[in-house]
Design a protein that fits this description.
By secondary structure, the chain is an all-alpha fold. The protein contains 3 helices and no strands. The longest helix has 29 residues.
């Protein structure tokens, strides 16, 4: 029984990862379960949202530069 059991275990050890790799690399499965789920959780940004974020970053950058400039002028 020992050899038959070892052959069964080795077959199981080899077929499970190969099967999982094959299933995970199916394009239809990947698109359905991963890409659509990702789009559902994180929808694509709209152009106006992106512009608002860029304007906010620019405003923060200008405030930071003004703060550093004032600090440099006071230290001089």
């Amino acid at each position: 029984m020992g050899v038959k059991l070892e052959v069964f275990r080795m077959t199981l050890y080899l077929t499970f990862p190969v099967t999982m790799f094959w299933i995970a690399n199916q394009a239809e499965w990947f698109e359905h379960y991963v890409i659509l789920r990702k789009r559902e959780l994180w929808p694509p940004e709209k152009e106006d949202q992106r512009q608002e974020i860029e304007a906010f970053k620019e405003r923060i950058r200008k405030q930071r530069e003004e703060k550093f400039l004032r600090a440099a002028q006071q230290n001089s």
